[in-house]
Automatic annotation (TrEMBL):
Methyltransferase found in the keyword field: yes
Gene3D superfamilies tied to this protein: Vaccinia Virus protein VP39
Pfam families with a match to the protein in the record: DUF8157, DUF8157_C, Methyltransf_12
Keyword Cell inner membrane: no
Transmembrane segments: none
InterPro entries found in the cross-reference section: DUF8157_C (IPR058959), DUF8157_N (IPR058470), Methyltransf_12 (IPR013217), SAM-dependent_MTases_sf (IPR029063)
Protein name: Methyltransferase family protein
Domain Methyltransferase type: 166-277
């Protein structure tokens, strides 16, 4: 078989730039004429290193170099094929009426327990029941959320069709499935998941529903114990300074680690020079702020070349700089519009997207709740809200919004105290959907004026833009997307004692423009 493998590789390398690679044809070229099915299997196993896509007709062609285009429109529903696969898994594990009787009660109590543990900051142990409950309750929203975060990369041509992906704490697979469905059919994915818990069993079943050009490996170990060299192959070495993963995912996992920044930094060492580290977290205050703290701790750190030794005593700065592989830069969605400044406010920023259609498995579990369950409110086990925080880090210095403001033209949030009661000109990113109707801890306060968190990347105190009088000249603020940068002319700066934050009033005198 090893001799056949090398012969298949050699023939595929020759034919890839000539014509589609046909296993039947290659079989004729190999000594001993192996069965075409054997050749096809070997081509599948070597496809990632050879950069080959398997087509519907059974032939193989080189993957295209064109970047992936951003998706258009919202994610409307969790796909039926994944829904069916999860329901089959639940039926196999708990019986065909898994949502009723003892098994239904068990799953409902499990979901209640891990939700309470999560909100109280307690660790969650992922046994089979927790993994099943987690899939029921969280899988659809996580599936959708990652696709919106990927839009930021695709919009700038930074998401390729030939992707090597490392998924830290992959869980039951929401981000993995979302990524696979975001990519076009002609994309090639080498996907590695790190997941030590029982969630890996659910993940394995669901990944079986992805396309033929998604090549998956699950490493059943912890993030701390994972050895990146285990993913190396003839055509790939994540420990080499000029190689690495194109995309490293850390979705809804950093808050569960004892040292999240240290673990994240270690995985940045496996990132390709032009790759992206995408971290995500739920929108609640603790995990969202925690994610932003990790982002800020990592920002500006310089990663040493993997092949270089530590700097010797007496090395000058130039010598040390030659050994550096890259500096961690925040690509988005938060901004750094003032050179040399970074924010130090509490950093609670999250996006909100349209709700998903209710999956059948959530509806079944919720509607089967016994009538005498005094703790149940209708919809308790339905979770279709798509609300999330995310951070994108890179090593090549690129930012999604690359601006350098000057105080001669624009006010700076770090100096807002001296502008209070004045009308000023300002440039800032919109870092929330409208918070009106909610207080700034997200618990509801009855505000009616549109209210948005904004940032220029220099602030140490939260800043909010509040629209008191909507006009055609300030409406661009309401129309801007999350993370989009706007200019504000004649915005009124006020201090809010109750919130200990700055309110920047957008009224009939204010002009807002969306900046490219």
């Amino acid at each position: 078989m090893s001799d056949h493998r090398e012969a298949v590789r050699s023939n595929a390398k020759y034919l890839r730039n000539v014509r589609p690679i046909d296993p039947d044809e290659i079989a004729d070229y190999i000594e001993g004429t192996p069965h075409p099915a054997v050749v096809k299997q070997l081509l599948r196993e070597e496809a990632v290193d050879l950069g080959l896509l398997e087509r519907d007709d059974g032939t193989f062609v080189p993957v295209d170099d064109d970047p992936v285009r951003p998706r258009r429109g919202p994610v409307e529903a969790f796909p039926a094929e994944y829904e069916q696969q999860l329901e089959d898994l639940l039926a196999d594990r708990y019986g065909p009426n898994w949502y009723e009787g003892v098994s239904g009660d068990l799953l409902r109590s499990t979901i209640r327990r891990f939700k309470a543990d999560y909100l109280d900051g307690r660790s969650v142990e992922y046994d089979d029941d927790v993994a099943a409950g987690y899939a029921i309750y969280h899988l659809p929203a996580y599936y959708a959320a990652v696709q919106y975060a990927l839009d930021d990369l695709a919009d700038r041509g930074l998401l390729g069709r030939n992707l090597r992906v490392l998924d830290i704490g992959a869980g039951v697979g929401g981000p993995a499935l979302g990524l696979c469905d975001y990519l076009p059919d002609d994309a090639l994915v080498d996907y590695h998941a790190i997941e030590p818990s029982a969630a890996a069993d659910v993940l394995e079943d669901l990944l079986a529903e992805t396309g033929r050009n998604v090549h998956t490996t699950i490493h059943r170990t912890t993030a701390e114990a994972f050895d990146p060299s285990e993913t190396a192959s003839d055509g790939f070495d994540p420990t080499a300074p000029d190689d690495g993963f194109d995309l490293v995912l850390a979705c809804n996992v950093l808050s569960e680690l004892d040292e999240p920044a240290a673990v994240a930094r270690s995985f940045l060492e496996t990132l390709a020079p032009d790759g992206t580290f995408l971290a995500m977290a739920p929108a609640d205050k603790n995990t969202s702020v925690g994610l932003r703290e990790v982002e800020r701790e990592l920002e500006g750190q310089r990663l040493w070349d993997r092949d270089a030794v530590a700097p010797a005593d007496g090395d000058d700065e130039a010598t040390a700089a030659d050994r550096r592989r890259g500096t961690v830069t925040v690509y988005g969605p938060t901004v750094r519009l003032w050179p040399g400044d970074t924010p130090s406010d509490r950093g609670w920023s999250f996006d909100v997207r349209p709700d998903l259609a209710v999956p059948g498995f959530q509806r079944c579990l919720d509607e089967a709740t016994p009538a005498d369950d005094a703790d149940h409110d209708p919809g308790e086990f339905v979770n279709v809200d798509v609300q999330f925080s995310y951070s994108q880090l890179r090593l090549d210095g690129r930012r999604r919004i690359d601006m350098a403001l000057e105080t001669s033209k624009w006010a700076k949030m770090a100096e807002m105290e001296r502008h209070v009661t004045n009308r000023i000109d300002l440039v800032a990113a919109k870092l929330s959907r409208s918070l009106s109707g909610d207080d700034r801890d997200g618990r509801g306060g009855g505000r009616s004026n549109p209210l948005f968190k904004i940032s220029d990347g220099s602030e140490s105190i939260d800043h909010y833009a509040v629209v008191t009088n909507e006009t055609s000249l300030n409406r661009p603020l309401l129309e801007a997307d999350y993370g989009e940068v706007c200019s504000f002319e004649r915005i009124l700066a006020l201090w809010n004692d109750d919130e200990e934050a700055y309110n920047l009033v957008v009224d009939e005198e204010t002009i807002v423009d969306r900046l490219a």
